[in-house]
Amino acid sequence: MQVENDYDRDVYNGDLGVVQAIELDASEMVIDFDGRLVTYGFGELDEVVLAYATTIHKSQGSEYPAVVIPLTTQHYPMLQRNLLYIAVTRGRRLVVVVGQKKAMAIAVKGKQTGRRWSKLREWLTHDWQATAAALSVGCARGASA
């Protein structure tokens, strides 16, 4: 799995590929991303990781022939209806849910995700105020010139 965007190679975070060759003499690995062969030097292998399994978040927008979903109460914050929906709808032919009935009930009953605490509003407000101040200074200079 590609773990960061690489615009030069046209592969992006979350893209899945299959290792086709490891060229020890050339210190390269060749990965097939949906029919496109992409070559990585051994020094660039931090851009890819093995992906026998992936998270619900990384799987968004993708489909797989079979999906196995573990549901346990040990990961209580992840028991959300929207995440369960995403997980179930990733499977094309087979979806298997393994876990506790209680965990399934919690996930299905979940009304909405909890409020996310971020500084986005603060950053946007600060940036907007700084931009407005810069514009007003620029306008004042332009008006007097």
Automatic annotation (TrEMBL):
Q: Which UniProt keywords apply?
A: ATP-binding, Nucleotide-binding
Q: Which residues cross the membrane?
A: none
Q: Where is the UvrD-like helicase C-terminal domain?
A: 50-98
Alphabetical list of InterPro entries matching this protein: Coronavir_polyprotein_1ab, P-loop_NTPase, UvrD-like_helicase_C
The GO molecular function terms of this record are: ATP binding; single-stranded DNA helicase activity
Q: Does the keyword Nucleotide-binding apply?
A: yes
Query: Per its UniProt record, what Pfam families does this chain match?
Result: UvrD_C_2
CC terms in the record's Gene Ontology section: exodeoxyribonuclease V complex
Q: What is the protein name for this chain?
A: ATP-binding domain-containing protein
Lineage runs:
Bacteria, Pseudomonadati, Pseudomonadota, Alphaproteobacteria, Rhodospirillales
